Amino acid sequence: TLSLHDALPISASVARYAAKIKGLAWSCSAHAVDIWTTPEWDKREKLRDMEWLATCTRAGFDHLAGLTAHPERIELAYHGLDFKRFEKPAERVAPPRDGSSPGAPVRILAVGRAVEKKGFDILLRALSLLPRELHWRFRHIGAGPLLGELKAQARALGLADRIAWTGPMAQDAVLVHYRTSDLFVLPCRVARNGDRDGLPNVLMEAQSQGLACISTTVSAVPELIEDGVNGILTPPGDAPALAATLGRAIGDGKLRQRLGREANRRVREDFGYETGIEKLSARFHLSPGLQACS
After folding, report:
1. Is the pTM of this model over 0.70?
2. Which among 148, 172, 220, 273 is most buried, taking Cβ atoms within 10 Å?
3. Separation of CA 18 from chain center
4. What are the angstrom distances between the C-alpha of 224 and each of 42, 215, 221, 232?
């Protein structure tokens, strides 16, 4: 068996053609951009030819299963976290900030590439709709092609003095910000080319540190976040709705603490990496004469 686990449209084509030349079976994996931007005919052909495929969200699984007569060939395996790297945080003992004091603004964090599907332009519009007397600071960690546009948008909206654009950071440094922030926001949406997030790792990482999260109902995010239970979900692309949710979460520290505690519990119970590894290992062991290609 030839197995190339990287990306469905290009790398999988390499595996497919190489397998045909060598007379081998083959497999691959499919993630968000692979699933949602690959032409349907291409997905159908590959699903027909391959021995099995791994995907990392229920949303992706359901979509791919609808394109094949053999859905049993598709394995749902969440990425999950290595909790040795994301140790359980200590309980926060300081009184939660509520946005009422200019000396203690609520710290809002976002981590992700500056690309359309992350929805950071929507977040900036939502922040601009918050009452001026509400005190907050926003930090973005990450690079990306739209970073310059986002900075210009922040200046145009009069938000520049409340925002820190940190750029890319090592994971250990990001972990410090998870632990010292009050609220994590990732307003995912579907990009114009159909691309969208699957289940962003940064949401799981933030939740592993007891950080209350706000995101949207796009793709697989609801597979992690149950609205009002272990986070808050808003409609994608809806700046006023996001602003209303932000205002409520900024002003209610006890709500953030409750959501953060439940988020930490859920992610540690259901999103460890071991389960996904075990599923993939079982699939590989069922493939005789395995030749892995990466």
Report:
1. yes
2. 220
3. 32
4. 29, 10, 6, 11
